[in-house]
Amino acid sequence: MTVTAPQSLFEKIWAQRRVEDLNADGSLALMHIDRVMLHERMGGVALRSLAERQLPVRNRQQVFATIDHIADTRPGRTEDTTLMPGGVDFIRVTRDESRKSGIHFFDINDPRQGIVHVISPEQGIVLPGITLVCPDSHTCTQGAFGALAWGIGSSEAEHALATRTLRVRKPRSMRVTFTGRLAQGVGAKDLALALIARHGADGAQRCVVEFDGPVIRDMSIEARQTICNMAVEFSAFTALIAPDEKVFSTLQGRPFAPSGAQWDEAMASWRNLKSDEGASFDVELHMDVSDLAPMVTWGTSPQHACGVDGVVPGATQSAERALAYMDVHPGDKLADMPIQAAFIGSCTNGRLSDLQAAADVLRGRRVAPHIRAICVPGSTSVKREAEALGLDHVFKDAGFEWRESGCSMCFFSGGESFGVAERVISTTNRNFEGRQGPQTRTHLASPVTVAASALSGHIADPRPFLRGEP
Ligand SMILES: CC(C)[C@H](C(=O)O)[C@@H](O)C(=O)O
Ligand code: SF4
Fold first, then answer.
1. Where's the Aconitase/3-isopropylmalate dehydratase large subunit alpha/beta/alpha domain (predicted)?
2. If you count Cβ atoms within 10 Å of the first and of the last residue's Cβ in the chain, which end, N or C, has fewer?
3. Burial tier of 467 (Cβ tally within 10 Å: 0-12, 13-18, 19+)
4. Ligand 1 centroid to 431 CA: how many Å?
């Protein structure tokens, strides 16, 4: 009888998808790639380059492209409008090459269109135990379904499209176990920011991070996507969560998920997709979440985060530049900081439950005068579902712009942006210098905190609003 050592979820998927080791110690392997996703900012270029080399896309049924990054999100957009100078070429190349190569393509007016990481589960593209790659760093979002999904570069994308394989340096493993109970007004985004603030934006370098513990088990699938989304801001290779019944029922019946007997077969193998008792990890972290407050960033890294009821911490040498860029000072109260704009959307917090949470704060209230407030659903399907629930009216009545789906002002693509040096509170994942526009000062927060701040005209604690106080 062979006794196998306890394995982590990551080790199981790695072993199942490894074609061969490429060196003696197994630290470099050729991996089988099940599915590839593409977007117009990076994908069209990869497809065109392959076509020029006369290399066909292998297994085009497993390749999916969408238009999200530089798509116009203003109401009334057409197939070729974009605010990015020269952006229309990216869109057209992606459209033309997708059609020629015969991959699945979700164009701007397709009801399946949306941010690549949001539409993947909607369509049943991501599945437990598969390997999925996309030339986009936030592919880690999809680890919430128990897939090994990670961001790659454009030339790697070409390799994966042409061969269905990739050479991968084996990542280290980390497990983060969350215990305790999340307080009202505190959610997955706050958890992610608190984790990164505590352990640093480079805290998970080269690691596959498995999120685990009762807090994760109790979390909705959408909240799990939010926390996995932020893993790359923790410098992780990617994130993983063991799939459970919530994942299976979310994916069942989706267009590209297996059906019939194949579904039953898949389910039988998926049930084993969890870390064995006694599995070991290179790094183990534990965090009790009970005392967490809603989090807001004050600087230019996701690690520059503290409770919304806190103050900007004392300057360290590395933070000085961040303080200057953000025009904040040690001791400033975060909750008093005036803002000019509020943004709700992105692959971090642009799903239906995010919009619902924000709408619960906004309902029957108006954003402060002079605030530019924008809501961009993460996918066309999220937009339709939100509209069916009347959420578009809640946002519009509160003074928000209600947009078409796309990445929009999550990142500055050279076209539309907030005013120069404006202070923005945003549900996105990156607050780097210039991320949302020229000198834009971005404060990252959850949807409820962004909604409460838009109403207040300054950064605000969402908890009184959730208690129905103001
Ligand atoms: C444009 C794209 C390659 C980029 C990424 O890789 O993440 C973008 O999505 C981002 O969030 O910065
Ligand atoms: S929404 Fe933002 S973070 Fe997500 S893929 Fe688009 S640009 Fe990147």
1. 11-457
2. N
3. exposed
4. 13
The average confidence (pLDDT) of the chain is 96
Question: How many residues does the structure list for the chain?
Answer: 470
DSSP state letters, 379-427: BHHHHHHHHHTTHHHHHHHHTEEE--SSSGGGS--SSS-PPTT-EEEES
As given in the structure block, the two tokens for residue 130 are: 């598969």
Task: Tell me the one-letter amino acid at 89.
Answer: D
- pLDDT (tens digit per residue) in 40-95: 999 999 999 999 999 999 999 999 999 999 999 999 998 888 888 889 999 999 99
Candidate of 118, 410, 435, 436 to mutate for ligand 2, largest count of ligand atoms within 8 Å of Cβ:
410
pLDDT tens sequence across 375-387: 999 999 999 999 9
- The rounded Å distance from CA 412 to ligand 2 centre is 10
Q: 429: Cβ below 6 Å to ligand 2?
A: yes
Ligand closest to 73 (CA) is 2
Average pLDDT over residues 93-110: 97
Eight-state DSSP code of residue 355:
H
Query: Which atom of ligand 2 approaches the CA of 378 most closely?
Result: 1
Please enumerate in sequence order all residues whose Cβ is within 8 A of that of 444, keeping only pairs 6 or more positions apart, or say none: 189, 193, 296, 297, 302, 305, 426, 427, 428, 429, 430, 431
Q: What is this model's ipTM?
A: 0.99
